[in-house]
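Researcher: Batch entry, complex prediction.
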Amino acid sequence: GENVEQHPSTLSVQEGDSAVIKCTYSDSASNYFPWYKQELGKGPQLIIDIRSNVGEKKDQRIAVTLNKTAKHFSLHITETQPEDSAVYFCAAIPNAGKSTFGDGTTLTVKP
Amino acid sequence: EAQVTQNPRYLITVTGKKLTVTCSQNMNHEYMSWYRQDPGLGLRQIYYSMNVEVTDKGDVPEGYKVSRKEKRNFPLILESPSPNQTSLYFCASSRLGTSGNTDTQYFGPGTRLTVL
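Model: Structure tokens for the complex:
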């Protein structure tokens, strides 16, 4: 089955700096790669996603890159703000199949 | 308002006492799923459903049952709960594309279950 590894498990940055979180996956059948943000006491919420026919996607301060050959994808957050502090999860999902999530990254943005 | 609702939000029970956690979505989504979240282990999928009467096991299905008799509801059943099922549970739903690919999953607020 699919295996998703996410690094780092914790990340602390200064406000205004960039943050990068990386995930690797094992199953080449996975073709949908979403990133979720989970704030304390809430359910995860999608922040950006990418499909396997695209190499990069950007939405304001957030971007995701995908390298299908190496089977890894990354989340980039620029100009971080304190409200970006949360737990971030990546996932790898094939068509009509199981969803496999990474273990999560706790991001802390220090003012 | 488009949403996924779960009930109850908090539950404390004892070993062996059957319980059901309900999940309902109002977005007409085909795909529904249950996850459990434990510290350091991320979100692990328990069961998922591609449509009514179609369910399949996720990575950690042991000790759980589900049913999908209606499109909007996807209850999670613990026939004989044990302490290792103490966890935070999330239900999620998503539409399916024409080729069966999942889209954004919308998560419920979570159910915190404690089994004594």
